Amino acid sequence: MRRPLIAANWKMNKTTAEARAFCEALLPRLDGAAGGAEAAICPPYLALPLVAGLCEGSGVGACAQNMHYEESGAYTGEVSAAMLLDAGASGVVLGHSERRQYFGETDEALSRKLPVALAAGLVPILCVGESEGERERGETDQVLRRQLDAALARVDGAALADVVIAYEPIWAIGTGRTATAEQANDACGFIRALVAARDGGAAERIRIQYGGSVKPGNAAELLGQSDIDGALVGGASLDPDDFAAIVAAA
Ligand code: PEP
């Protein structure tokens, strides 16, 4: 049995005061959901220690939105795995399409980040997904294979079970255009088959999320699919009621 992971990607939203108000509203709403899905919040770095502290003992994790692969050094503006652990993080989102599109994140850098996160004990949430044009040209599987082969090149087969993969079609992120449950499940199933080609046991255990305009109204159908083990939620994760409803749907 794979325990679904519902992760809130806040992107560049919420001050520490807003983060505190969110956690204080969310945690009592999740009480009844204990034993079901696992939840995590991915705040901006500055709110990470606060969110980790407020969520301590609740089972809700705190994850960063990016990380550098070097341990330390002259990398202005960057943050290392050790710094994330020190801030209370339990995981880290890697390769979000916004980082690839606006900040030059490369598959090569991701292939270095993944083993560093795993070695530090951080759960990496690796984002992959095709653009609208790539889907229209029938290139979705090819894009997913290329991104996963590259990003996971330095991860041992058995260790793949400790990675979370988020299938996020770029055309569905922040657009209100959700992939159909069938499209999402097909892509997640394809990703699982790629993992199985490297390690059958890891493919059974690895969690594959869907992300792209997940809302309380569509969460149950998406999360009910056989190969979808959770969601990476952007816009709807900014509201504690909506996020709690998505966790409850899982
Ligand atoms: C995301 O940022 O990962 C995301 C899926 O955003 P949204 O839910 O707003 O589409």
Architecture overview:
The protein has helices at 16-30, 48-55, 81-86, 97-103, 107-120, 132-136, 140-151, 181-198, 200-205, 216-223, 240-249; strands spanning 5-9, 38-42, 61-64, 91-94, 123-128, 164-167, 207-211, 230-233. The chain has 250 residues and is of the alpha/beta class. The protein has a single domain (1-27, 77-225), classed as Alpha-Beta Barrel (TIM Barrel), CATH 3.20.20.70. An eight-stranded parallel beta barrel has the order 1-2-3-4-5-6-7-8, surrounded by six helices. Strand 7, helix 10 and strand 8 form a beta-alpha-beta unit. The longest helix has 18 residues, at 181-198. It is globular. 43% of the residues are buried. It binds phosphoenolpyruvate. The site of phosphoenolpyruvate has 13 residues, from strand 8.
Question: What's the layout of helices and strands?
Answer:
Layout: E1 5-9, H1 16-30, E2 38-42, H2 48-55, E3 61-64, H3 81-86, E4 91-94, H4 97-103, H5 107-120, E5 123-128, H6 132-136, H7 140-151, E6 164-167, H8 181-198, H9 200-205, E7 207-211, H10 216-223, E8 230-233, H11 240-249
Parallel strand pairs: 1-2, 1-8, 2-3, 3-4, 4-5, 5-6, 6-7, 7-8
Helix pairs in contact: 1-2, 1-11, 7-8, 10-11
The structure holds phosphoenolpyruvate.
Characteristics:
single chain, 250 residues, alpha/beta, TIM Barrel, eight-stranded parallel β-barrel, 11 helices, binds phosphoenolpyruvate
- How many domains, in number, for the residues? 1
What's the total helix number? 11
The CATH superfamily appears as Aldolase class I
What does the radius of gyration come to?
A: 17 Å
Q: Approximately how much beta-strand content do the residues carry?
A: 5-15%
Please outline the major beta sheet: 8 strands, parallel, barrel
Give the end-to-end Cα distance, rounded to a whole number of Å.
13 Å
Low-confidence stretches: none
Question: Are any ligands bound, and if so which?
Answer: phosphoenolpyruvate
